[in-house]
Amino acid sequence: MPLETRVIETLSKVTTATLTTILLKKGLRNVWIRGATPLRPGQARVVGPAFTFRFVPAREDLATPASWGSPISTRAAIEAMPEGAFAVIDAMGIADAGVFGDILCARMARRGAAGLVTDGVVRDLAGVLGTGLPVWARGAAAPPSVAGLTFVGWEETVGCGGVCVVPGDVIVADQDGAVVIPAALLDDVVREAPEQERMEAWIVSEIERGEKLPGLYPMNAETKARYDAWRAGQ
Amino acid sequence: MPLETRVIETLSKVTTATLTTILLKKGLRNVWIRGATPLRPGQARVVGPAFTFRFVPAREDLATPASWGSPISTRAAIEAMPEGAFAVIDAMGIADAGVFGDILCARMARRGAAGLVTDGVVRDLAGVLGTGLPVWARGAAAPPSVAGLTFVGWEETVGCGGVCVVPGDVIVADQDGAVVIPAALLDDVVREAPEQERMEAWIVSEIERGEKLPGLYPMNAETKARYDAWRAGQ
Amino acid sequence: MPLETRVIETLSKVTTATLTTILLKKGLRNVWIRGATPLRPGQARVVGPAFTFRFVPAREDLATPASWGSPISTRAAIEAMPEGAFAVIDAMGIADAGVFGDILCARMARRGAAGLVTDGVVRDLAGVLGTGLPVWARGAAAPPSVAGLTFVGWEETVGCGGVCVVPGDVIVADQDGAVVIPAALLDDVVREAPEQERMEAWIVSEIERGEKLPGLYPMNAETKARYDAWRAGQ
Amino acid sequence: MPLETRVIETLSKVTTATLTTILLKKGLRNVWIRGATPLRPGQARVVGPAFTFRFVPAREDLATPASWGSPISTRAAIEAMPEGAFAVIDAMGIADAGVFGDILCARMARRGAAGLVTDGVVRDLAGVLGTGLPVWARGAAAPPSVAGLTFVGWEETVGCGGVCVVPGDVIVADQDGAVVIPAALLDDVVREAPEQERMEAWIVSEIERGEKLPGLYPMNAETKARYDAWRAGQ
Amino acid sequence: MPLETRVIETLSKVTTATLTTILLKKGLRNVWIRGATPLRPGQARVVGPAFTFRFVPAREDLATPASWGSPISTRAAIEAMPEGAFAVIDAMGIADAGVFGDILCARMARRGAAGLVTDGVVRDLAGVLGTGLPVWARGAAAPPSVAGLTFVGWEETVGCGGVCVVPGDVIVADQDGAVVIPAALLDDVVREAPEQERMEAWIVSEIERGEKLPGLYPMNAETKARYDAWRAGQ
Amino acid sequence: MPLETRVIETLSKVTTATLTTILLKKGLRNVWIRGATPLRPGQARVVGPAFTFRFVPAREDLATPASWGSPISTRAAIEAMPEGAFAVIDAMGIADAGVFGDILCARMARRGAAGLVTDGVVRDLAGVLGTGLPVWARGAAAPPSVAGLTFVGWEETVGCGGVCVVPGDVIVADQDGAVVIPAALLDDVVREAPEQERMEAWIVSEIERGEKLPGLYPMNAETKARYDAWRAGQ
Predict the structure, then answer these.
(1) Which DSSP category does E40 fall into?
(2) What is the ipTM of this complex?
(3) DSSP single-letter state for residue B215
(4) Touching F: which chains, 3+ CB pairs < 8 A?
(5) Best interface-test mutation with F: which of C40, C99, C110 has the largest number of F CBs within 10 A?
């Protein structure tokens, strides 16, 4: 099920920092994928439903160049991705073999993938950047996936960077990394996030005017009244 | 498919050190589960077919005490284990929440499990030791699994301690840890292992007699002839 | 404020595994001190109020043998410990310099300390074991504290093994490690823990009788009724 | 006590590489804060007296959004910072919760802070860069501090990145990271550093002329005489 | 023995990603130096024969500024490097003391070194970048080598970033890091690499035309025929 | 040059804790080999001159079972060890391939080696313990050295567990691990150590009598006088 345009537009304007604050208030502390940073400086925010890939460590009898042609292959998985999906790749944190290089990323970009996040690395960094696919990863490594990884399946619940990701959860990624919004909480988050952003922007403008932190952040009653008045006037 | 008694008897007399040497000669360097040591001093060697469990990191909305009653639960998985199986538990290396405690280990022991190996930890160490189940793990931690882990399924291919384990591979574990024998290589390994053990024992006896290493280990032609003569006389 | 005898007696019969389950149900997932294991095999469970020590990394101009005589010294801190206190030592996880050796542990034991837990290590392991003080640590290292650590104060809120410990919280430690009970939750935990232990012991006895896990753990209504009947008969 | 303008001007022209060499000659090997790199490419060198913040790991009953309003809060600490101070934030190396985001960094910048160094991370990277505050950190993470950290106090001696920092020590930070100059050694360092820089620059110019390393670096007597003659001619 | 111009020209057009694929097919999975990334954004690919340096951890009686004048010094080693050599520096992964700064890198650049790769860090990053020497490292640190390292020799077989490097092996480094080609395999690799690159570029162009992955990568017989026809037409 | 009997006898009565204190006072903070613990519970203290072995990471073309017969092999190195030597094995901290198993340890024991210390692991733990050779290591692993390590030479200066070891330095190892005494400092250490041990034992006896720490440890003038009187009476 693709995301509604309205959801994508709203979340594209919300920082992952704000999203983690909202999720924390709902009791979720562990939603930020550790170790995945944007590979392209100045990478814009990207939103999409999670489409998961699962790797386990390589075993020499299973992870071979020949396995690339197997029916359970990353190739078949990529062809199964719907347009707009955000690839979430569980590489078990292995950083010395790239999950994908320029060829597979080029195909994902061609098929309209929103982005890719992994707790591992990619290979052929220059080639991957050339495809235009937005990527969050631990970096790049030259060796092919079969040097350290065996692909085992797609659209399973996975762990990625210390976070549980269920197919269909929503991924939002920006310069602070990638955050998972559980599907069941999506509506609430989309409703609450814009107000949180508006309020924080107003606080920053107050600080630029020279206001002190106590009473401003978090707001006391007097500040809250002032903010409400400002908001009403928007 | 349970292991034949003959396989269990043969492998019970072969060290995991010897098994890794044999597998290395067949091109497999990555078959030893990192971080899993026997919890009981003097633990005897144990052999059994792998039955896998897969955990991912905890998410507060999924890993709850209530989830213990879900149909996709560790309880259901344990009841599905055949007698003699060796539980292989992918805990993603998480060491601050125990995968199982005394209650679940007691049930596994009661159902005739051969042993349990995990790249995580158990909880209630005294209780687990009391059940008699042989366990290889990174240690023990007090918190329950839901404090750090979410159970997602059983009898899938998993990664455990940096090693790929496919359901039905054979696990052998002793004081050096746990080794995975891919199912397709089992017959060859069972055939070759006893001879490797016999030869190494003879070499140690030669060293005890005062022989020097060069020419002895690995054997040169003269030593080989001497060994063959001894072996023929057995 | 020393702990009431009743509290110590009750908690001495509760595993740290049970305590973390109870605390998790109250929303606390992070109460188990990582990396601290009992130094003595078969160490019995110990209970006491936390008395904290804080170290930072060594700086050559501050961490010198001469500093041992300073008024802000570990010696002064030890003399300030009340009888029955449990020393909690924040060593920032540094494992290549021992926080204390046999001399300071001997004095703690003489003053009636309940135990010592650290995310660092002790030194002179044989000597420390000889004092009889129960110790939970990452192990032992020969170098003195000044080789890697500078002592900065006592009875401050500290981090120890990834857990926040406030002076006066209660520490319970056994073979699964050490757990922190926040002071404000102590009464509730002391009230609930014995029943939790009783119930789990009954479940283990049911498993030994051959009962299956589903319906037993967690209990369904039928099992709950059976347990209540048994309990009423006690 | 603010730093004299003369001290700031002198140290602004000295690399942290040179400062660590000078401190090593005085016996201090451990003065470089591990893991803190400048968040802005091409970040200029910054100098200021250390003003310390101390965090410990989060505990769910203490680290809550509500705690942001407590009197012992990061807000109160920031308002206590004198102009020109360099914030040193002990985050115990925790990298999955940001110590500060754009709001608090904006207020620090507004109050004239020289910079911020932490062994943890910031959040809302784009926003923090927008405030203009120079920051040295392990990177960025979306989650708020309360997801992983509890603030406990300010102007205490702390450990940051494996280094002991006492309030009032002087911090110098550039592209090689951040270095601590103990307050008692400041005068000596300020006196010796410019000559060390001048000498090293002369050596580089000699290498560019084609001189070989032996005899040049370190200088032998002949080179020393040549350098002294050059210096006299300046 | 310097590399032939033809070898340098060929390898300068081959990605390290392709080189690791070719080496993997020959049975070598461990040829990529972990942790070494290019210090300069957009760093071009560099090729050269390995010239090794070996460090061990510092011991205060051996690693002193005075040792810089010893006959077994990094200075002497640098003067022994032939033009075009690629410095490979085994720093045992130590990241808190820089192996070299601007002075030694300036001399290497002046002597025509191809590049420098280390599993440690450099110091005086701005100065090092100023010398123009291409560097792959874990980053930068202010402290001098003697704060953490002792130099013990050159042109020995070393381990660097988890990879064995023998003097005279060939290093190729680009944005994916640095790869070691064992000297004995050089001719084969130089022969096979251009065809591999040509084929992968054709596949990317096919993807850009909208081709699906299965059958394309790896190629099935039909695709192979199409590629052969295209290649014949070049 | 073997150690004099007098040196061995003296050092056999001195804890490694005391030795590190003495070496720290001489300016050496980094003499304790990290990660090496005694494999046998209750292992007695062992003393011997260092005989070094150096491994680098495995490369598939170099680390093969066939390499065991090469002239540069661990076998040749073991035959070169003088009686009483303490094997110091630089395994670069690699913990998933055993440096030696029962065969090589049996030969070392037969040749009168004092002990073995490594920052790696051994294999065939039961067999190694059976040889009687005292071993300090990070543990045990089943895979053979060639699965992860390549042997490159002996009697070179090495790094082991973060410490520089020069052939001929003296190793002392007990329950707190293994400490390196640089050869040049041996005489001083042997002279000073017994008095340090005597003094610390007296302090412990004072604590057992109920003395407080301040004034006792470190001693003030009054305590010093009391100790001197006691010592004179011995």
Answers:
(1) S
(2) 0.94
(3) T
(4) B, C, E
(5) C110
